[in-house]
Design brief:
alpha/beta; elongated; 23 strands; Glutaredoxin; 3 domains; FAD/NAD(P)-binding domain; 5-stranded parallel beta sheet
Length: 395
């Protein structure tokens, strides 16, 4: 089976940034992507909130991310990830071309546009129903279209579509937009844009192509027809995380829960970018997540190698595990190091504060503690509070 140090699943802003930081940390990095590098930003016509770049298209920014990552020479592989499994403590990624064992994994698979679930949506997808204004807007030259949603994406894409359509009607279930003020002002000042508030799509109908949208007012219950040739759906996002099959803790529809180090509930598996449960899903926050996840993964891999070489590989070893932020424990560590070796080896001091995950993994509850390992397993351990108790343990 192929073995790698850091495997990053996804090559959007989070994944590519993680690759840069991972390679700069000296790791062997493999990026698995099944689609266009750059992720969802390729579908965005304008990006004006990437610091240092006043204006760029999503495709331009995606290309610059890819070229930056390639500079550090990670391996890119176009393959579908089907599963992640734990086998005897090993992390195994199942792909369409075989299994890969990884020391650490960063899930940076992003999110996809949510479907409305309305009758006619599936039938007319590709025949008037679209989830990408940049991809399909030009097909609706001088025609009337509807945009469904009220967030940044819906409002911004509605403005974009006015380059082609004769009229754009934004349909929103609430009485106000959730988008940024600048985006709202642009939309509301555009003469081609109208808004239908407090309404949801009951049905998308037509013969061969979309001909109308049936709307329901959520306050009055009134049903009305909106004649349109196209429907652009921007009604929220769903995480691309089905391949995890509930392996890590998630909320809502599968958004992955992490701590500030991007660690998931499973040791050695990290998550970054829009696939996370987070307040703001933007290119810049995804990139920040990727940097954090890569540095945390590098520290995790280093920690695992340290545990392996110092504690698990020797025939017999004794470790004094303490907290460096507790002054009495730090002084005791210095005193224990001076005790002459009575067995096969000298006592090794390990900072349990800096290596909290290691301490948790070993099942050590209270510090400071002396722990004896034989052939990679704990043979005995004891909490020690002074030099006399340490000498007794070591005698």
């Amino acid at each position: 089976m192929e073995k790698r140090e850091l495997v990053i699943i996804g090559a959007g802003p989070a994944g590519l940034t993680a690759a840069i930081y991972g390679k700069r940390s000296g790791l062997d990095v493999l990026i698995l992507e099944n689609g266009i590098t750059g992720g969802q930003i390729n579908l965005t016509d304008e990006i004006e909130n990437w610091t240092g770049v006043i204006h760029a298209s999503g495709a331009e920014l995606a290309d610059s991310f890819r070229r930056h990552a390639e500079h550090f020479k990670p391996e890119f592989r176009d393959v579908e990830v089907k599963s992640i499994a734990l086998r005897d403590g090993r992390k195994i990624i199942g792909t369409g071309s075989g299994d890969i064992e990884a020391e650490a994994i960063i899930v940076a698979t992003g999110a996809r546009f949510k479907k409305l679930g309305a009758p006619g949506e599936a039938e007319f997808t590709g025949r008037g129903v679209s989830y990408c204004a940049v991809c399909d807007g030009a097909f609706f030259e001088d025609q009337e279209v509807a945009v469904i949603g009220g967030g940044n994406t819906a409002v911004e894409e509605a403005v974009y579509v006015t380059q082609f359509a004769s009229k754009v009607t934004i349909v929103h279930r609430r009485d106000s937009f959730r988008a940024e003020r600048v985006a709202i002002e642009r939309a509301m000042s555009n003469p081609k844009i109208e808004v239908v508030w407090n309404s949801v799509v009951e049905e998308i109908a037509g013969e061969e192509m979309v001909e109308k949208v049936v709307l329901k007012n959520v306050r009055t219950g009134d049903i009305t027809d909106l004649p349109v040739s196209g429907v652009f759906v921007f009604a929220g996002m769903d995480p691309n995380a089905s391949f995890l099959n509930g392996m890590v803790k998630s909320v809502g529809g599968g958004w992955i829960v992490t701590n500030e180090r991007m660690e998931t509930s499973v040791e050695g598996i990290f998550a970054a970018g829009d696939v996370r449960d987070k307040y703001l899903r933007q290119v810049i926050t995804a990139a920040g997540d990727g940097a954090t996840a890569a540095m945390a993964a590098a520290a995790y891999i280093s920690e695992q190698l340290h545990i392996q070489s110092v504690l698990l590989e020797p025939e017999q070893v004794t470790a004094f595990i303490f907290s460096s932020i507790e002054e009495p424990q730090a002084r005791l560590a210095a005193e224990i190091e001076k005790i002459p070796a009575s067995g096969a080896s000298k006592v090794i001091s390990l900072d349990g504060y800096k290596n909290r995950r290691m301490v948790e993994k070993l099942g050590i509850g209270d510090l400071p503690a002396l722990v004896e390992f034989k052939k990679g397993r704990i043979s005995r351990s004891e909490v020690v509070s002074d030099l006399d108790s340490a000498r007794k343990f070591l005698s």
